[in-house]
Structure formats: structure tokens, C-alpha cells
């Protein structure tokens, strides 16, 4: 496989063809904020937080799904990008019902961490206060759609790693939400193996274990790392 050379924030980088700008930046030790990205599953460019500027291209590109090409000159931390990322976080907060003070993931939430990193202390956009339901029909887990940011990590982890494909995205526009089965209560979906990978993958407090209260959720991302590694090394057969 051929190697591509490019610049990211003025740093010369060589990486194999087919790699994404996000992968190239990681190898170079350059951090690009992400929310929908999760190591071990496919990227879809849903959150747009990883937008970067590429010289000669008059639009911003999502680093997670943009492949490297020879001679690229990429900027990842310009004032324009910082403003766009802050605006995206503000829009996520205004679009949903994110009340950190009463969330199980308070203090352990990627959305919350990004808001702090971006310097967000309020949203410039009017809050929508949508009417969203909470599904606790499952014996072990629950989902609060008020906290969901439609990153689809749960969908991709369940499909690509667990192989159950319990989760999907239903409806359109402002009504879009993640669903289980064919929009059936989670507890009635026989395909669910109760593995908990969707809980570990969720960046917010949307999918949680029953019995946890405010600020008590603690994730172990190493569980996902093990699953991915085990699959790649064929440590078990299915």
C-alpha cells in the first residue's frame, strides 16, 4: 500500500493510503475533538465536531471520514473551527433536554466535557424543550431520549461488534431518535443479548444501567477495546 505525505498544523506526516485525517492527526499526537467517533467501529461523520480546514477547499471537512491525499495542508485549531465547534455544542444543548445536574453521567459525560473545553457557558439558541420519552422496560438498562445526541454509537456497536442490530434510527427531522427493534419497547426485543455494549459506547447519560443515580455512571471503555481486539484476533468464533 502506498504512503501519503501531508501537513497537519504545519507538521509533516506520512501515513498509509486510505487512512483518515483523524487517524493521521492521532498518529501525529494532534487532538481533534470528536463525539460520534468511537475506536473499533465505522465512522459516519454525524456530529461534525471534527471539522478541519484544508487548503484549496472552500468548505470544512469532517476529519473522521475524509481520507488523506498527497500534499494536503490541514488546519485543525483555527479561530473559525473553534467557533464552529462551540456553536455545534450549543445547538446540541438547545435541541435536547440536557440538564447535567440531574443526569446519571454528570462528571463522566463527553458532551459535558466538550462544552467545558469549548468555553460554553450558555447557548445562544432558543431551547426547544422537546417532549421525549424514557424507556425502562429492559430488566437491566434504560434509555432517556432527552439526553440522546444521535451519535449512533449504540447502533454501530450493536451491529458491528455484538452482531445483534437491536438499535437503529427511526423517524425524520426533529422527530428522529434511536429505536430498538421496530420501535418496540427495549425490554420486548428478543434480539437484545443484554451485553451492555451500548451503555459503554454512549457518550452521554442517554443509555444507562438501572439503579444508578445522579453522577454515579462510570464507564469502562476497555470492555469495548477487548471486544474489538478479540474479534480481530479471532479469540472466539461465533
TrEMBL record:
It comes from Floridaenema aerugineum BLCC-F46. The gene is hoxU. Residues 80-119 form the 4Fe-4S His(Cys)3-ligated-type domain. InterPro entries: 2Fe-2S_ferredoxin-like_sf (IPR036010), 2Fe-2S_ferredoxin-type (IPR001041), 4Fe4S_Fe-S-bd (IPR017896), 4Fe4S_Fe_S_CS (IPR017900), NAD-red_Hydgase_HoxS_gsu (IPR016214), NADH_UbQ_OxRdtase_ferredoxin (IPR054351), NADH_UbQ_OxRdtase_Gsu_4Fe4S-bd (IPR019574), PSI_iron-sulfur_center (IPR050157). This is Bidirectional hydrogenase complex protein HoxU. Pfam families: Fer2_4, Fer4_Nqo3, NADH-G_4Fe-4S_3. SMART domains: NADH-G_4Fe-4S_3 (SM00929). PANTHER family: HYDROGENASE SUBUNIT, PHOTOSYSTEM I IRON-SULFUR CENTER-RELATED. Residues 139-170, 183-212 form the 4Fe-4S ferredoxin-type domain. Residues 1-80 form the 2Fe-2S ferredoxin-type domain. Keywords: 4Fe-4S, Iron, Iron-sulfur, Metal-binding.
Amino acid at each position: 500500500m502506498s504512503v501519503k505525505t501531508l501537513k497537519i498544523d504545519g507538521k509533516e506526516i506520512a501515513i498509509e493510503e486510505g487512512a483518515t485525517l483523524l487517524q493521521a492527526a492521532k498518529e501525529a499526537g494532534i487532538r481533534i475533538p470528536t463525539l460520534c467517533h468511537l475506536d473499533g467501529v465505522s465512522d459516519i461523520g454525524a456530529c461534525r465536531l471534527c471539522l478541519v480546514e484544508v487548503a484549496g477547499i472552500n468548505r470544512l471537512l469532517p476529519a473522521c471520514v475524509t481520507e488523506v491525499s498527497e500534499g494536503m495542508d490541514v488546519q485543525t485549531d483555527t479561530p473559525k473551527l473553534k467557533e464552529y465547534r462551540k456553536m455545534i455544542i450549543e445547538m446540541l444543548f438547545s435541541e435536547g433536554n440536557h440538564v447535567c445536574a440531574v443526569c446519571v453521567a454528570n462528571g463522566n459525560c463527553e458532551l459535558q466535557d466538550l462544552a467545558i473545553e469549548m468555553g460554553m457557558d450558555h447557548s445562544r439558541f432558543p431551547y426547544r424543550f422537546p417532549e421525549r420519552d424514557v424507556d425502562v422496560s429492559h430488566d437491566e438498562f434504560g434509555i432517556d431520549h432527552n439526553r440522546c445526541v444521535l451519535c449512533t454509537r449504540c447502533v454501530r456497536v450493536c451491529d458491528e461488534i455484538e452482531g445483534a442490530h437491536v438499535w437503529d434510527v427511526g423517524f425524520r427531522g426533529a422527530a428522529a431518535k434511536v429505536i430498538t427493534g421496530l420501535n418496540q419497547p427495549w425490554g420486548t426485543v428478543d434480539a437484545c443479548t443484554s451485553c451492555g455494549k451500548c451503555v459503554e459506547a454512549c457518550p452521554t447519560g442517554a443509555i444507562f444501567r438501572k439503579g444508578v443515580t445522579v453522577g454515579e455512571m462510570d464507564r469502562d471503555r476497555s470492555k469495548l477495546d477487548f471486544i474489538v481486539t478479540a474479534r480481530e484476533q479471532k479469540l472466539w468464533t461465533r
